[in-house]
Every structure is written in C-alpha cells, then in structure tokens.
Hints:
Elements lengths: L3 H13 L6 E3 L5 E2 L6 E4 L3 H8 L3 H9 L3 E4 L2 H7 L1 H4 L2 E2 L2 E2 L9 H14 L22 H12 L3 H8 L17 H15 L7 E5 L5 H10 L2 E6 L2 H13 L6 E5 L10 E7 L10 H10 L1 E14 L12 H7 L8 H11 L2 E7 L1 H17 L1 H7 L2 H19 L3 E9 L18
Parallel strand pairs: 1-3, 7-8, 7-10, 8-9, 10-11
Antiparallel strand pairs: 1-2, 3-4, 5-6, 11-13, 12-13
Amino acid sequence: MADAALRLTTLAGELLGSPFPVRIRAWDGSESGPPGGPVLVVRHRRALRRLLWRPGELGLARAWVAGEIDVDGDLYTALDRLAGILWERGPAGPGTPLRPLRDPRLRAAARGLLSLGGPLPPPPPPAEESRRRPGSRHTRGRDRRAISHHYDVGNDFYGLVLGPSMVYSCAYFDEAGGTLEDAQRDKLDLVCRKLALKEGDRLLDVGCGWGSMAVHAAREYGARVTGITLSREQAAWARKRVADEGLTDRVEIRVQDYRDVSDGPYDAISSIGMAEHVGQVRYREYADLLLSLLVPGGRLLNHQIARRPEPDESAYELDAFIDRYVFPDGELSPLGRTVAALEDAGFEVRDVEAIREHYARTLRAWVGNLEAAWPGAVRLVSPGRARVWRLYMAASAVAFERNHIGVNQILAVRTAASGASGMRARTRDWR
Length: 431
C-alpha cells in the first residue's frame, strides 16, 4: 500500500484516458499529480469502493458526505478541474466519462483500483441520503415528502446560509457590487416592478419560502398577498415574520399545494425558484392552473433554473447527487421548453431575462456564509448534512459559471380576448 497516491493517479488516468486533473493525497500521506492548486484528499480507501460501485458524481458525493474525501485548497478550482468527470456525458451517461472496459489494460486498471479499495460491496450510503420514494413522481404526497427533505432541516440553519434576507433564490447584483442583502432586495423589487404591482393588487406567491417576497410586496407596494408553501417550518417562520412586520391584514401564509389553490382571480402571480419542483410531467397542468387564477391582463413572473437541452431529450436523467441528497425529484427543463409550455397554456410571453452569472455570485456568497459559521452549522444539522450543502452550493456555482445550467425570469401575461395585455409599448417599462 506504499505510495497509494501514485497508484491512484496512474490507475485513474488509465481509466479516464487522460491524466487525473488534480493532485491527490492518499490515506498513507503520499501525494501524486499535477503540482500547485487544490489537492484532493482521500482520507480512507472506502472512498474507492464507493466510486467503483457508483462511478462518477454519486460515488464521489457519497465519499464526500461521509468525510472520506476532502479538498485542501480552493474548492471551486478543484470542482472546475473535475467538471469533466462530474458533468460531461461519457459512454455510461452523464457524469460517468469512464471508457468501456473492453481493453484488457483498462480491466487491469479497474482491478487495481479494486485491490486498493478493498472488497466490494461498499459501506451503506451516508444517512443524509434520501430514502427510496414509492409511487409516481410529483403526486401530492410524494412532493410534500420531497419538500420536507430539503426545507425542513431547521430555519436556524437556513438563516446561517442565506443571511438576514432569508431569500433562497438568485439575487440580482448591481454592476458596481453591493452586498448579498442589497442584491436580494433588488431582486424582490425587480419582480414587483415586472409584475407592475400597485396598492390593493392581489398577489399569489407560489412557493413563498420564508415570506420575503410576500412581505416586500405588501410593505413596499401595498399588495394583498397569499403565499403558499409545502414546508411547515417555512410557513411558521414566515407567519411570525409577517406578524413582526405588522402585515397580518395584508399577507396570508398557507401550507398548501399549488394544485389546491382555487380562490382566484389574482392580479399577479410570482413563482420564484418553485417550478423546479413541478416536474415535466406536471408542467402543463401548472401553467394551465396559473393562467386560470389570473384576471385578464394579469401577469406571471416565473423565475426558474434551466438546463441545457439534450441532443436526445428522452435520455435526460435526474442529477444523481441532487436527487439523492438535495432536491428529491427536482427536475430542470430547457428554457425553450418552459416558454413553450406557458404559451401552450395560453400565456403571452413578453420578456425573458437570463441572469445565470448572478446565481453564481449568490451561491458563492451562501458558501461563504456557511464556511464562516461552520461549527454552528454542524451543530444545527450534522457534519454530513453541512458537507452536502457546501458541495451542492459550490458545485452549483461552478455549473452556472461554466454555462452548464442557467436561470431565467420569464414575464408572461394572460392577455385579454381583445388583445389588451396591460403592457406599455416599451416592454421593459420596469427599468
């Protein structure tokens, strides 16, 4: 087992068909690989068993969550260099760019890794992994359980990560800089202006989170807001926030599925970071329902993460790490598909703004908050859960920076039968 790092980099290079992109420090203290930059620390050889059992992203994630691997140095640089292993499509699918093992030399390399890692099978997945979910995706019950897995981990933990704004979606940064709090306030205000909110308007905030949008719209624009969420912890926090702001006469927070909202019509609907939970099989139903809840001329602001289109859309698979550890059953759609679904439902799409660079900055700010409060975060959740969040947010920041994923604000209108949309001739009148 002497010089395990050299054996690791050699065998990994043979399997990948190119040199391993980062330096490795193995459990025996040896190092090998390109000098300079971050070091991938393999603390225990169990990590190899996980990788051999689940090559690519999921195996790496399990080893990370279990604390069997770590990064010494800049995590973002390490993830950027490992992007080809994590995300690019190989012969075995997304995130598994291993070459087929038909070549005897490759089979020998795999056997070499197996001997380094010890006998299969690997240990059980870390406890933070979501359990198997029975039934079809995006039924009411399964959606409720998925939301609880992600959001009901403690409001105090989210407070450490998100900061005082408690806004869990892409901020909107000024070119000159500004704080995360400034950028989140500016994002909420941008949404309100795009929706042309005014005193007395009824606003439905779908996926209201901790109530930030609802409070801003009521306090700054005089709107009467109904916020809905499936997370009981979010709802409890949001209700207290509304009461503390003295807005109980203007804001109602409900624990409610969007499919059960029937008290329209509303003048405007905001859906900020919620549609990723809807699922492609339900997206037309989602669009139809939101249209039916709006008055003629009413506006929808749909703020949603998008993925790049697949050459063969039928081959799309859920991201393994995100599905198991972060957003169970979360699905991303290409922007064009989302626009088409809204138009098919009867919406007139009036504006699309792509803001992916802003999400990269937002995520880096959240990671900074988490790292600055690391001991407290670990106490509030668990070491594994805190590691899930650090990896998820840092990897997502790199994915936005590399244009692997994007985020868009889509402004759509329920245009009246006469053709009246309520929009001014200059479409971007909110500027």
